[in-house]
Design goal:
By secondary structure, the protein is α/β, with parallel strands linked by helices. The chain has one domain: 3-Layer(aba) Sandwich (Rossmann fold), CATH 3.40.50.300. It contains 15 helices and five strands. It has a five-stranded parallel beta sheet with strand order 2-3-1-4-5, sandwiched between helices. Helix 4 crosses helix 13. It is globular. The two termini are 12 Å apart. The C terminus is likely disordered. It binds adenosine monophosphate (AMP) and magnesium ion. Magnesium ion binds next to loops.
Length: 343
């Protein structure tokens, strides 16, 4: 990829980053309808397509290198668009390299452990991208808004008094730093939805029969706690956006834009990791050369010594002819060379 493209991805991602140490107030600091310089959904589709292709390429290298792992944490209010974002953003990557885990109300077994246990069990392997659909951040979001959840966690008395949230922020930051130091990169995305757009999406679930299954009266009850969630998420963003694992607040009122922005943020992390295909050692190369000689010597009468090489050459000639034709067509249409491919 060109450095120009990399720079542009980095600039774009920066638009959404929560500066470590800054004090965030969601309603004041982030606009759920922001769409940067992407004017229309149509332009967005093209951008997303390119982003998805880019992710596929980087994921292949991440897997081959087998050194770094990536953990995407997706948080949002109900109807924020987490599922659709996962579906679209990851649509081009090799399913073997990706895992998705959703976290719901904790089970009895999970409550019998420390609060990070169930998340630690689902961390990515090296070379893998894992997506948390809800994450350990529920432990300072829903658990904070409904403290009865904390009561269920069976904490000893000395661990649940005042200061429990500040302590959890610190523990989460420490844990994430540990992961980062060991080659696991976190990409934390908060899909920022407006109250009015949430109302519309809930109504959609009631209006369309094929969406009815998504409706839950529990969501309506949670909506009553809107301000408390905004406050809890603002606190979370203020305390856990760190140098090693910053938060990205993605405007989520337009689904198509949320998907582009999420793809950009993930792509930026991968660009920074810059995974490379492993190169083979000199000894292995010698070995390969010997194997090649053996295979060439086994060509039956009349067959090409290396049929694959011939196929490759044919393919290259065909591609070149296509490029030349395309070039001629573009010149005829008056499109200047410099404009093509510019993001
Ligand atoms: P959904 O993602 O719509 O299937 O809903 C999952 C539910 O699990 C949501 O209502 C979350 O608030 C809830 N949930 C997720 N993690 C926790 C947690 N650690 N403690 C309590 N509730 C949780
Ligand atoms: Mg739900």
């Amino acid at each position: 990829m060109s450095t120009k493209q990399e720079k542009r991805i980095a600039e774009y991602a920066r638009l959404f980053r929560v500066k470590p140490g800054s004090k965030v107030k969601l309603g004041r600091d982030f606009d759920p309808r922001f769409k940067a310089d992407v004017a229309r959904k149509k332009d967005g589709a093209e951008l997303l397509g390119r982003g998805i292709a880019l992710l596929a390429d980087y994921q292949a290298r991440l897997a081959a290198q087998d050194t770094y792992g990536v953990l995407v944490c997706l948080q949002a209010l109900d109807a924020g668009g987490k599922d659709g974002t996962i579906r679209h953003v990851m649509s081009g990557v090799n399913p073997q390299g990706v895992a998705v885990h959703g976290f719901k109300v904790p089970s009895a077994e999970e409550l019998d452990h420390d609060f990070l246990w169930r998340y630690a069990r689902r961390l990515p392997q090296r070379g893998q991208i894992t997506i948390f659909n809800r994450s350990h951040y529920e432990e300072v979001a829903v658990v904070r808004v409904h403290p009865e959840n904390l009561d269920r966690q069976k904490l000893p008395a000395e661990s649940k008094g005042a200061g429990v949230w500040a302590r959890r922020y610190r523990e989460i930051n420490d844990w994430e730093r540990y992961l980062t130091d060991n080659g696991f990169r976190l990409v934390k995305i908060f899909l920022n939805l407006s109250r009015e757009e949430q109302r519309t999406r809930f109504l959609k679930r009631l209006d369309l029969p094929e969406k009815n299954w998504k409706f839950s009266s529990h969501d309506i009850a949670e909506r009553e706690r809107w301000d408390d969630y905004q406050e809890a998420f603002s606190e979370m963003l203020s305390h856990t956006s760190t140098r090693w694992a910053p938060w990205y607040v993605i405007p989520a009122d337009r689904k198509w834009f949320a998907r582009i922005a999420s793809a950009v943020v993930l792509a930026n992390a991968l660009v920074e990791i810059d995974p490379r295909y492993p190169t083979v050692s000199r000894a292995a190369r010698k070995d390969m050369a010997r194997a090649r000689e053996v295979l060439l010597s086994q060509a039956p009468d009349g067959a090409a010594a290396d049929p694959f090489e011939e196929r490759l050459a044919r393919r290259r000639r065909k591609a070149k002819r296509r490029d030349d034709a395309h070039e001629t067509g573009l010149v005829a249409a008056g499109v200047s060379d410099g404009k093509r491919g510019a993001p």
